[in-house]
Amino acid sequence: MATDASHQIYSMGPDGTWRGHSHDAAVGAVEQGEGSANAIKNVAVSSVVGIEKYGPVLAESANAIRGLVRVIESGDLYVTDDWTVLVREKVMSPAMAKLMMLAAMGFQDQLNPHLMHLGHADHDLGNFIRSQIKVMATEMPELWDDRAAPRDVTTDPYSDEERGEHPTKGREAQQKRLAEHMMGTVVDKSTITEHGKTVTTLRMLDGSRQEYTDAHHGGVGDEFAMYSEKGFLISTKVINLDRSTTTTLMRAGRSPVVVTETAGGHATAVVDGVTVQVAGSREVAQALAGGGMAALEPHVADGLPYLTAGQAETLKVGAKVAGPALTVLGTALAVATAKSGYDQCVAGTTGAVSLAGDLGVAALMSPGAGALKVAGFSVVGSLAFGILGNAVGQAVCK
User: Are the C-beta atoms of residues 192 and 199 closer than 8 Å to each other?
Assistant: First the structure.
């Protein structure tokens, strides 16, 4: 139709009755319209060709994802909006929780390849259509460099090196998310008051529990205790009269490690009679939040490593409170990784004490890192040496 209009306007030109600027403007407008129409036509044709080429992969992957999600969500598992398989929030035995966590990991490994294929087919289709448009709009940037292009909402859990994607980063993030979900989701809560104190007990999805004692003295005398899924005491923390805190980390068959932290955040640990400086709990919490662990918990993201007794009392079932448990593990790692500072500052004067041997990460974590251990060594290793980073690795000589 644009071509017919152009022909009719031309026919009304110098040999007809229409002359002047209005005729020239009309010709120019029609010619511009013809160009726009052709461009739209080319995009439409390219879209059809692209869909015919990549559509089957898109449809196959989408159908596979929908079918698998239906199977996953038919029981005690569910899939989040960012495609992480988690265990439903409900009271279950520690053995069942471990089984469900393993099932979630297995289904995640089945789901991820379909997500990868869907993402790649979608990316390839977009690139194909864009390449056709760039024939006419040569100034259009590449897809990867276009700030206006839609972005992925989640990291590819699996990918190939040729696309410049990290092949394991997304999967590790899923494992950490699952471990944090298991150790930090409240599935049961009880509060009792006796002898002038209020004790709130939070039971977590993995079977571990946290106890918060409010001494009703403005925080002084308040206590926190963490127990493993098997009922073993892992750690205690008490607020002293001068607002310092004393945290005790239990060791099977060994004397406990005692960490004292001033109100200003200066922390020291006593290990088998040897005193070393370690990262404070606030530094640990900030490192956790910066590394993505417990970052969704506002109190942790703000650098508050523990809940107050009052905050614990107001929590509801389903709340996420992984921060305190991760802070305990982070504090243990801070002590365990203090070896370099210890060697540098005190080894020559106090004897051959090796914190790496006497206070290894495994020794401290073995009673209470159930969810992390199920998730695998990569999660524990990244928590120890990656996520917590240098803030947890601080030692004696700063």
Answer: yes
